[in-house]
Structures are given as structure tokens and as C-alpha cells.
Design goal:
The chain contains six helices and twelve strands. With 235 residues, the protein is of the alpha/beta class. It folds into two domains: 1-132; 159-235, no CATH class.
Length: 235
């Protein structure tokens, strides 16, 4: 696994961004998240050591733009170079998430065709409104590897009709002292939709405020993922 953040910074876009960890971390450091800047790791996938070998070894999954959004309009001038690096590194698999799937076809390279074999795109949704707006666009997009990210999930949703050709659905709650609660019933409902369509499902993390069987639990940040894993419902 490797991380590649060719730029950093982002703009809050929808309800799921309210307690964005990037904005919260930047605020503590006095950094303006709305300022989108190229990082010194822009060329990380193609950088080589003194022996002429790629520093990022073949066979890894590279998590792309996890401090921003790969389809951010501010980054339009840089994205073509990123696609070229992804093409060069066909021995790596790149994964990026986006709330801006409506920009996807305006952002792909001319040779995209039906998608690159080594790129997975995750479309993020947080409620039924964003699911019904973003997922039809995502469903029709020429992408070979598709994930749906329901994180943070803010209400019960029905996405079963959008799961054709989706490889994985990831679900999680919101992390913040003032976070909106995640109901376990919502988690199970989405899981069942994945079971019905033979789609892989992963319960990634509980919310800070987690409701199960009518009881609300407050879960420390360090336990959000481990508590979700203990549920044993990934499939």
C-alpha cells in the first residue's frame, strides 16, 4: 500500500463534508484548506532511486488524493500529468474517491476508453439525495473498477438498483464529538442490498455516536474501525 497526494486542500461540497478530517486537521495547524496547492510528492509514482528503480515497488495499491478530491476543478491543470503517470505505472493499482463524479467525463484522458485496468474509482455518498444524484452518473460512467463509499452515512439509504458492476461497498459513520449518529440498522440494510446483488461489503468504521438496538454508544476515535470489524458482517 502507498499514498500519493499530488496536491492538497479541498472545498466542502455537501453534507458529508461537515466534519471533514482534512479541514479539522488543517484548522488546528492554521492551514487554509481552501487553498489548493501542488505537493512536493507530485511525481511520487515515477520517482526512481539511484539504481534507476521505481521507489514505489510494483504490485501495490496506491491510494490517490486522499487529502483532496481527484476531480477538484482547481486541479484541472495538473490532472493530465497524473493520468500519464498512472499509465506509466501499469504495475500499480490506483484508487481514488470522489464526491464530484459529475465531472468525471470532463476529466478523463482522451485514451480512457472504457477505463484503465489499473484504476478503481470510488463514488462517495452520504444520504439518499446524494445517492440518487451521483450514482446514476457513476453507474453509466466507463470505469472498469467501481466502489461505492457510504461514509459518513447520515441516514438509511437504498442503493440496490445502483450496484450493477460495483465491486465493493464501504460503509462508515462520522467521526467528531458533534457527529451525527450512525444507526446499525442502516448498516445492515445496505449490507443486505449487497448480499442481494452479490456485491462485496465492508463495514469500515462505527460513528463516534453509534446506535444499536435502541442504545447509543460513544466510541473513541481509536476504536471506530476495530469495533466495526468486531461486528463480523463484512462479506
Amino acid at each position: 500500500m502507498a499514498m500519493w497526494n499530488p496536491w492538497r486542500g479541498c472545498h466542502k461540497y455537501s453534507e458529508g463534508c461537515r466534519f471533514c478530517y482534512i479541514h479539522k486537521g488543517d484548522c488546528k495547524r492554521g492551514v487554509d484548506t481552501d487553498l489548493i496547492v501542488k505537493t512536493d510528492r507530485f511525481t511520487a509514482p515515477v520517482e526512481k532511486n539511484k539504481k534507476g528503480e521505481y521507489k514505489i515497488k510494483a504490485g501495490q495499491t496506491v491510494y490517490l488524493c486522499f487529502s483532496s478530491d481527484f476531480l477538484l476543478p482547481d486541479a484541472d491543470v495538473w490532472r493530465a500529468d497524473c493520468w500519464n503517470m498512472m499509465k506509466e505505472r501499469g504495475d500499480l493499482h490506483f484508487l481514488f474517491l470522489t464526491k464530484r463524479i459529475n465531472r468525471f467525463m470532463d476529466c478523463v484522458p482522451s485514451d480512457w476508453g472504457d477505463g484503465y485496468d489499473n484504476v478503481t474509482v470510488g463514488c462517495t455518498v452520504e444520504n439518499q439525495q446524494t445517492a440518487d444524484h451521483r450514482l446514476p452518473i457513476f453507474q453509466s460512467a466507463p470505469i472498469k473498477h467501481k466502489n461505492i463509499i457510504c461514509q459518513p452515512l447520515l441516514e438509511q439509504i437504498d442503493i440496490e438498483k445502483y450496484l450493477d458492476d460495483v465491486e465493493l461497498v464501504v460503509l462508515g459513520g462520522e467521526s467528531d464529538p458533534d457527529a451525527r449518529a450512525l444507526h446499525y440498522d442502516w448498516v445492515l440494510a445496505v449490507r443486505q442490498q449487497c448480499v442481494n446483488t452479490h456485491t462485496h461489503f465492508e463495514f469500515r468504521q462505527c460513528g463516534t455516536h453509534f446506535i444499536r438496538d435502541g442504545k447509543e454508544y460513544t466510541i473513541p476515535v481509536r476504536q471506530l474501525c476495530s469495533q466495526a470489524k468486531k461486528a463480523g458482517i463484512n462479506c
